[in-house]
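Weekly puzzle thread! Below is a chain. First person to post its structure in token form gets bragging rights.
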Amino acid sequence: MKNKIAQTALAGLFAVGLIVNLASPANAVVCSLAHTAGSYGVSDSGTVINIGPRAAIALLTLDAAGNISGSVTASLNGTVSSSTLAGTYSVNSDCTGTTSFGEYDSSGNLLLTATASLVWDSGMQEFRFLFTSATLPDGTTLATAVNGSAKRR
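Winning reply:
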């Protein structure tokens, strides 16, 4: 009888331990620069107000130090161009973040600076973004309605 009680108690403790372990925040993905670092395929679309539609694809690398870089091909009102992107990004504990970057032509000339709000999901494998500002080198501010998504490669 004592042996049966001990077996039942042990099985119960095992089940409770398993449930606690599975529900533990320790198993949740921690939102951090280290967990977002990697290579992402990116696409965005929307409108640059008073200029026209924009669509773009990019291959971006985010590193664990908060740097972002990569190549971009974009169409703005039907004109296609290629550029490189370089800047920084941040990640908050709630999996939101921001980025600030410049885009440069093949000669290294600044084409624009921009910022975007970010949110990670799918276990830090994907992020969504919304442009929050875009400025030309002469200081002209561009109003945008552009959003996109990125998926880890």
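Puzzle host: Confirmed. Bonus trivia for everyone else. Residues 13-24 have pLDDT under 50 and may be disordered.
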